[in-house]
Amino acid sequence: MVVEDDAALASTITDGLVDLGYDAVAATRSADALALVRDTSFDAVVTDLRMPGTDGIEVLALSKRLVPERPVIVMTAFGAVDTAVESLRRGAYHYLLKPFKVAELDLFLKRALDDRAVRREARTLKKAFGDRYGGNVLVAQSEAMREVRELALRVADADVPVLLTGETGTGKGLLARVIHAESTRAAGPFVSVNCAALPENLLESELFGHVKGAFTGATSNRQGLFVEADGGTLFLDEVGDMVPALQAKLLHVLEQRVVRAVGASRDREIDVRIVAATHRDLRERAKEGLFREDLVYRLEGVAIEIPPLRTRRDDIPLLVDRFLEGAKAANPKSPVERLAAEAMNAVLGHGWPGNVRELEHAVSRAVLLGRDVEARLGDLPPAVGAKRMARAEVDFGDAIVPVREISRRYAAWVLERVGGRKTIACEKLGIDAKTLNKWLADDDRD
């Protein structure tokens, strides 16, 4: 839509835009302009600033109020530049000084419409990501997981690194995505890399990128995952397995917020939020010389420990329901709707050394193999029904047991009493995390 009180100029502009492929309409009177601006089908507005009756600022304000994302380009004479600058402060996309060529207007219209398309796509992706990974995706019936979810949501908008710890399969990757989805960076990219899955030279190139010819096989430039994650979040899974040489480069990125590709001579500024995860004790690895202590401090902007599934059995029924829903969607021909009582009892009693990931696989197997509305015990993995997890007990009766078993049972009992929160368990027992993990090491090992 073109708003211009000079009929001849309005005709010239609209005719030129039509020749370039636009569907352009002109309004030369204030009443017509205000009526057309209310039509939300227009993709862009081009308006003169100074007009009798309604001026361009009023047209801009009305358009922004009705369709905030619709770009508005203002036209003005040289003597009204100050007003044009004011229009930019109020949301105009750009201003053009008269006289100008229609080709110049075409250039800025294309840029404005492209920007709007990108913003729409980003908003759509953000909504889709948020729908899938918003805070409600975390099952948190147990007190321990409620605390984890609350802490994750509190730090989501804080622009500090987050370190997620916990046993393999507890859901660290899911929590990282929740933190991103709930942050102000949600419209930006979420990029994930497993630091234990790639050899050193490939991981370096994957993270930092490389220039053509930097090494054998580098036939083209590669920007790297830090650059891909610019404006968003980079998730470093199993960061505890990163080799010391790459730890030094990671520390430099965190401190300077710049990255240098392999073989490059210049740094590149980046804006990336780091979320890292590990099942290892980084402080213990630092004592052993396997991990940089200064990097531990950098990664631990906020540390969140995810408790193992065996210490938060209140979450198991809800997790089963969620995994049943997902497995049914993947196998719509399966008749399974729920677990039979015997199967559910076995699930509740199992130790789940593989944590949530193991439970998900077990439920998927039951849905795949089940032939009735209720999945039976035999439809679950054999290990689930083979041994019930013994509740931690401290009353041994007349039995004589090894000291190691006493330590294991007592540690498990304390951990259960504090809702799976290892930090509190260590405080209650007066031991460090390494000792607690050692005491618990034999729990459900077979």
From TrEMBL:
One Pfam family linked to the record = Response_reg
SMART domains to which the protein is assigned, alphabetical? AAA (SM00382), REC (SM00448)
Gene Ontology MF terms in the entry:
ATP binding; DNA binding
**What SUPFAM superfamilies does its record include?**
CheY-like, P-loop containing nucleoside triphosphate hydrolases
Supply the alphabetized keyword list.
ATP-binding, DNA-binding, Nucleotide-binding, Phosphoprotein, Transcription, Transcription regulation
Q: What region holds the Sigma-54 factor interaction domain?
A: 138-368
Segments traversing the membrane: none
Domain named Response regulatory: residues: 1-113
**4-aspartylphosphate PTM sites in chain numbering:** D48
Q: Name one GO biological process term.
A: regulation of DNA-templated transcription
Protein's name in the database: Response regulator of zinc sigma-54-dependent two-component system
* Species of the source: Labilithrix luteola
